[in-house]
Amino acid sequence: MPHDDHDHPHSLLPPDPALRVKALETLLVEKGLVDPAALDAIIDTYAHEVGPRNGAAVVARAWSDPAFLDRLRTDATAAVAEMGFTGRQGEHIVALENTATVHNLVVCTLCSCYPWTLLGIPPGWYKSDAYRARAARDPRAVLSEFGVVLPAATAVDVWDSTAEIRYLVIPRRPEGTQEWGADALAGLVTRDSMVGTGLARDPGTCP
Q1: Where are the domains of the chain?
Q2: Does CATH number 2.40.110.10 belong to domain 51-205?
Q3: Is 206 a residue of the active site?
């Protein structure tokens, strides 16, 4: 069904997701439904205090604590709650382990569902129409654009995040880190590696 009716209300929305969010925020503030100071506080918390650091701590513990990894596999929501990571957008977490034969990629095809309590605020590309459509249709091409080129024998599993379930990818632990402590290991974990659009950092590139 063509959508060329320029008088339709949806056609008046800015095409870029960020502009849509800003337009919605402005409207809610004007109607007195939202306090802009409260919004700023929430954004600051997730951008600077949470960010991907919580998720990195979870991954580092999973790499170094087999018992915790087992609990993460069984009930990731409860396992991350052990570390104090609970709250909005993190009510139901499922952990996905990358292996030598399987690489996991997370997308939200409908909107931008994302585990805020572990990864902070979703990046712009995660919310873009292009990523949401192409990650499901041609994941290897999308991964290559992020610099991740996988062997042909490695399967790519794509997981659709929803309001009910949010995913945390556990990237493969880099070789040569067997003696590393949790803080050092967490430094190898990137936000993208926990979405599946990246890999853990090379230990040789870390100070």
Answers
A1: 16-46, 51-205
A2: no
A3: no
For residue 126, the SS3 value is: helix
pLDDT in tens, 7-43: 433 334 445 555 666 777 777 778 777 777 776 666 6
What residues contact 63, with CB distance under 8 A and at least 6 apart?
Answer: 69, 170, 173, 177, 185
175's CB contacts (< 8 A; 6+ apart) are: 203
**Is 106:165 a contact under the CB 8 Å cutoff?**
no
What is the spatial distance between Cα 28 and Cα 182, in angstroms, rounded to a whole number?
Answer: 43
Tens of pLDDT, residue by residue over 85-120, are 986 655 799 999 999 999 999 999 988 899 988 998
Among the listed residues 111, 128, 144, 193, the single catalytic one is 111
Maximum C-alpha span of the chain: 63
| pTM for the predicted model, two decimal places | 0.77
113 is catalytic: yes
